[in-house]
Amino acid sequence: MGERRRPAPAGTSTSAITGIPGSLTLAERFIIGFRLPYILGCILVGFVLFGILNTVLSKYVETTDLWRAVIFALSPQSLAQSALFAYSFYAPRYMRTKLLEAGRSLPALMPEKDEGFRKTFTGVSAVRPQVATWIVFLAALLLALSVPVAFGGPSPFRFNTDSAFSLLEFLATIVDVVSLAVISLALSSVVWTYWSLSKGMLRFSSAPLELRPYYEDPFLGLRPIGSLALSLATVYFGFIALFMLSLLTSSSTPSLGDVVGVGGFLFGLILLGLFLFFLPLWAIYRVEFYFRFALVLLMAAIPIPRWAEVKESFQSRNDKHGWAIVRTPGPERRFLALLAVLLIATGMMMLSIPAHLELHDAYLSVDEYDTAMWIKAHTTSDAYVITDPGTGYFLRGFSLRNASVFFLLPDGRAPELISSVYPNLRSDLHGIFASNSTPDIVNRTVALGFNRTYVLISTRTVLWAQEDPSTIFTGPIPGVSLGPLAGLFVPPHFVLQYATATTYVFRVVP
Fold first, then answer.
1. Contact 26/189 with Cβ under 8 angstroms?
2. Both ends of the chain: CA-CA distance in Å?
3. pLDDT tens, 203-260?
4. What pLDDT score was predicted for residue 101?
5. pLDDT band at 490 (very low <50, low <70, confident <90, very high)
6. Which long-range contacts (CB under 8 A, 24 or more apart) does 139-146 make?
7. Residues 6 or more apart whose Cβ sits within 8 Å of residue 258
8. Concatenated DSSP letters of 382-437
């Protein structure tokens, strides 16, 4: 009953993929036991067997009318519940598949590599915690369904108090018990998988990671964990949406006990999802946390109906079903609006981040970094690089060479300060790049008085030459042509030493 695994890409350790969850989750094992393709098994078992057919049997025993039972099984509420059951069987496998995909690259960031990654996420397939979660979830669900009884409502469970024994009703009761156990297994598996993987992401982000250099990967190698978190949250809140849909499509008016019991149970699942959604990403992406915090403030701005109003509204005997609640102003509609904004805002936030998103470092390009490394490797420590202040700032830090206005003078002061050696260095440098004459550029360069001098032209340099000398460009500018400016630095006084698509390095020959 093992699952089919995709072949590992070249250069990837197989253990990093196959050894993360040592076995399937309980919900996956149940579906695979039917020896069907997994998606087809989820549909037949979740939607048809424990959804439509179970509803037909239960309603037929209650009404002894097969046609009414079929009509009820095909009602919007019954179809929504059946879709929820099928979705709940499929969701754990989808989340575990996303973990396997992340396992192709994330182990390289951990000190213990594959072994450390397996230890971090191996709990997702542990049997005992899944059984404990199943039992707790089943107990909480039974408690939520029993709350209406405490408010004087009818019991959701059917008991045969007649003296006559009905074999059909007896079998239907057994089927109801089995169905409740199986359905709660599927529902609890969604919660357990989301909880386990979210805790694993928190442990992963708390480990002493060996992040990739930002000039190789703007995400520092953490993009797979961010994609995993968004995928898990999307699946979990899809589960919550189907749960809410199955409640909102009910044709009966919810009682106060239903609101307290089932509504409180659903609200607890929403809080759990939000807590786990915040928790792992807060440790990795601080900016995203504050964005989600803004969503919380948005929710706080919506007026929440007072409990007395909600209680009075649900205790009334008015025939308010489905769209009638939406069309009628009142505490019920405000309560639904509160939940709707929460789900819509969260969903839009996740959908607004495209899967192909690629961020780029705003302060340094790959060409600029490579140029800085070339200067560091091929020039002496007393070399001076003529360039604009923005380029000189990062060049001084990466190549450890004096560049532009960022270095110290023999008297211990920076050229930007008042100095008798370079009283106006920024303007002198700007005059070199703003000149349209090669001889004038040579004279200005030699007048600086440096011995080993180089000229670095980048996209920032081109724009700086057209602006005021006080301007500084803090990042590379796409689409800027270096040709016209670089064409002024020609032999014999300027010898090209290194070039990329967006940078040129010349050696000055007096």
1. yes
2. 78
3. 887 777 777 765 566 677 788 888 888 888 889 998 988 888 888 887 777 777 677 7
4. 86
5. very high
6. 140/265, 140/268, 141/184, 141/187, 141/265, 143/261, 144/261, 144/262, 144/264, 144/265, 145/261, 145/262, 146/261
7. 147, 148, 153
8. T-EEE--HHHHHHHHHHH--EETTBS--TTS--TTS--SS-TTHHHHHHHHHH---
Q: Which residues pair with 457 in a beta bridge?
A: 504
**Tally of CB atoms within 10 A around 252:** 8
In sequence order, the 6+-apart residues with CB closer than 8 A to the CB of 312 are none
- C-beta of residue 61 within 8 angstroms of C-beta of residue 169: yes
Determine how β-strand 402-403 pairs with β-strand 384-386. parallel
Residue 110's φ and ψ, nearest 5 degrees, are -95, 150
Query: Cα dihedral sign for 211, 217, 218, 224?
Result: negative
Residues 142-165: b if buried by 16+ CB within 10 A, e if exposed: eebbebbeeeeeeeeeeeeeeeee
pLDDT tens readout for residues 256-306: 767 777 788 888 888 888 777 765 444 444 445 555 566 566 556 656 656
**Residue, of 128 and 253, whose pLDDT is higher:** 128
Two structure tokens written together for 234: 């999307």
79, two tokens: 């179809």
Q: Would you call the peptide bond into 492 cis, given omega within 30 degrees of 0 as the criterion?
A: yes
Burial (CB < 10 A; 0-12, 13-18, 19+), residue 381, is exposed
Residue 380 tokens, joined: 């002496």
What does the alpha-carbon distance between residue 321 and residue 318 come to, in Å, rounded to a whole number? Answer: 9
Which DSSP string corresponds to 65-92? -HHHHHHHHTSHHHHHHHHHHHHHHHHH
Given strand 503-508, what is the order of strands in its sheet? 402-403, 384-386, 453-458, 503-508, 494-499
Q: Which value, in Å, is the radius of gyration of the alpha carbons in the chain?
A: 33
Q: Can you read off the two tokens belonging to residue 319?
A: 């025939």
Q: Tell me which residue has tokens 């469970």.
A: 157
Structure tokens at 360: 């780029």
In terms of Cα–Cα distance, which of 115, 105, 137 is closest to 216? 105
The continuous run of DSSP H or E covering 324 comes out as: helix 323-327
Q: Do the bridges between strand 384-386 and strand 453-458 make them parallel or antiparallel, or are there none, so unpaired? A: parallel
DSSP-derived secondary structure letter, 492: T
Chain center to CA of 401: 40
| Whole-prediction pTM | 0.53
Q: SS3 sequence, 216-272?
A: CCCCCCCHHHHHHHHHHHHHHHHHHHHHHHHHHCCCCCCCHHHHHHHHHHHHHHHHH
User: Given this model, what pLDDT does residue 300 score?
Assistant: 62
Count of helices and strands (H, E) across the chain: 22, 5
Distance from C-alpha of 189 to C-alpha of 183, rounded to nearest angstrom: 10
CA dihedral over 386, 392, 395, 399, signed as positive or negative: positive
Token pair of 208 as six digits: 């002493």
Asked whether residue 431 carries a pLDDT value surpassing 60, the answer given is yes
